[in-house]
Design goal:
- The chain has four helices and nine strands, in the order E-H-E-E-H-E-E-E-H-H-E-E-E.
- By secondary structure, it is α+β, with helices and mostly antiparallel strands.
- Strands 1, 2, 3, 4, 5, 6, 7, 8 and 9 form a nine-stranded antiparallel beta sheet that branches.
- Strand 4 and strand 5 form a beta hairpin.
- The protein is globular, with a radius of gyration of 15 Å.
- The structure holds a DNA duplex.
DNA sequence: CGTTCGATGCACT
DNA sequence: GTGCATCGAACGT
């Protein structure tokens, strides 16, 4: 980790969710777990904003699952999707307003052997660029699960830090994998990054 | 290349 | 009982 690394302060998450989604590109998602540190540069994100957003988990009001979305910004919202994939979000804006940024892909920068080990345990045989490509894959690689739900992203074992990386040109388009709300261009990714999932990855510049 | 489809578990109706 | 902010293997071009 570079000497100028610093944790992203809680006030960062109190901005408009689209701003946070855009500005998270280039920041580093870090997990200090039992096996050691694993971390990756955020290269893809999506915004989910309020009960008016049909794709947001809070679109039908507060429930037991989505309650973290209504909590203070700067915490993690982690949940299980399709029965087998943990997805990690950063809660944004303000307490009482359900909004968050889904982290969809990382460029691995620390703990690569640990990531390879975690992915290989489930049969993964791809290259390092694919270790954290996709929201379910990156949580697997970093060892993120329910224990990190509602964790403080500034002080917890799971944090978001600024290691001084600058994201390259950023592209924007419709969100992936949702049924409703596909018309909103609330997905952001680093143009040309080989670690980005779906359309936009690789040559998708 | 492209598309289809099963795995898998929990929240919600 | 249904549907899901996924993934990757198994097909058909």
């Amino acid at each position: 980790m570079p000497t100028d690394a610093r944790v992203v302060p809680a006030r960062f998450y109190r901005q408009a969710t689209l701003t946070v989604a855009r500005e998270l590109l280039g920041k580093v998602l870090v997990h200090d777990g039992v096996g050691g540190r694993s971390a990756g540069i955020i290269v893809e994100s999506e915004a989910y904003v309020g009960e008016d957003d049909p794709a947001c988990h809070a679109s039908r009001g507060p429930t037991a699952r989505n309650l973290p979305l209504y909590g203070p910004p700067g915490r993690a919202y982690v949940y299980l999707n399709y029965g087998m994939h943990w997805l990690v979000n950063a809660v944004t804006e303000r307490e009482g307003k359900p909004a968050a940024v889904l982290v969809r892909a990382l460029e691995p920068v620390a703990g690569l052997p640990l990531m390879r080990e975690r992915r290989a345990a489930l049969g993964f045989k791809g290259n390092d660029e694919a270790l954290c490509r996709g929201p379910g894959n990156l949580t697997r690689a970093l060892g993120i699960s329910a224990v990190h739900n509602e964790g403080d992203l500034e002080t917890g074992a799971l944090r978001i830090e600024d290691w001084g990386y600058r994201a390259g040109p950023v592209r924007r388009g419709p969100r992936i994998g949702i049924r409703a709300g596909t018309e909103r261009p609330w997905r952001f990714w680093v143009a040309g990054s080989a670690c980005v999932s779906g359309k936009g990855g690789g040559s998708g510049g």
